[in-house]
Amino acid sequence: MRSISVLSSVALASLVALGPAAPAAFAGDDDGGTQPDVTSFGFSVTPSTVAAGGTVTLNSTGCDVPTVNVDAPVFDKAQLNEGHSVTRQVYPDAKPGAQYAVTFECNGETGTTTLTIATGRPSPAPVDRGVRAGVGGSVGGTDPALLAAGGVLIAGALGAGYVRLRKRRTDAA
């Protein structure tokens, strides 16, 4: 009997914690314009938290006209054509921890969502230099110590081969 009361307590605590978030889940539904940011079309910014200099994907669904305009003070303006998503790079000088309003406009109707800039030190963007295939790794540069060691090994191999060849000739005679 005790496990049922613990389970019901956990369920009740979950409902209390998630209850205020439920109206936000239906932000794309049309309520006739009585609530802010409730539109007849859906829109999203993914991810909703991004590091300065990172990229976000903008998406809109259910707009009656083929073009949705997207504007925010933290990236360049965008146009979503016929439900296609678009990516935008967040300005590198965006303030960490700040929240910016991203406005979607469809046929005169606007909706807004929030984009949060992540705090902490941003990781450097990866540099795509391609694959170093087919050259055996020799593109990385020259190291004088490695060149000298290679030269010594080659000279030693040639010397050992010469000595062995001379020894074979003297044994045959």
UniProtKB/TrEMBL annotation:
Claim: Signal is one of the keywords in the record: yes
Keywords: Membrane, Signal, Transmembrane, Transmembrane helix
Annotated signal peptide: 1-27
Transmembrane region(s): 145-165
Name by which UniProt lists this protein: Lipoprotein
Organism, as annotated: Streptomyces xanthii
